[in-house]
Predict the 3D structure of the following.
Amino acid sequence: MTEAFAGKEDREAILSEVVDLFAQIPVKREPRPRVAVFGDIYVRDNDVMNQDLLRVIESAGGEAVTTCHTDFLRMVAPGYFRRWFAEGRYRRLVSLKALYALIPHLEKTYEAHFARVLGKAGGWDEEPPESLLSRFGLKAEQAGEARDNILKVCHLKRRHPDLSLLVHVGPGFCCASALTGAMSRTIEEAIGVPVLSLVYDGTGGDKNGALLPYLKLARPNLASGR
């Protein structure tokens, strides 16, 4: 796959072979508490920085819910487009909006292959950002990580209504992450899902152990239908 996406091989042919291998893996279906991870991109997508968070979630009996980058762009881009229009940054708006419009067409190339193991992707519900952000006293024209985090958790809840836990991750001494962490209670009340903030400050120690009690509590509740 690395060689294929580096442009040295036929991507679709290689992808078809890889999906064939995945399709042969036996799968055991069982209800698991679904845990969505959001927050600082350098922590969220770095297994070293977040102490292998996704593996910890799954080893403890949970199901990690991840978000691909194209979905994240769909969540946050409309607000930035409005901001750039209001600021008169038309060249940036036109160029990036053209790239944004290409996303659905580029995805179609690969959807048919991945659908064999992931199922057919649902349609994208682009609820106006202002209606989501207004619950938190924010405006669509605002920018920054905290605003993007709010949009992400709202969309995650709409796409995965059975979420058991939201895990917010961030590096130590990060103002944007601290701001999102300070809104945890408000997010819980608006979304109806518990929020756990984990801060990775590079000092060592098991940061992910804090989420184990949540999963331990969620598993029997899930089994009983609660």
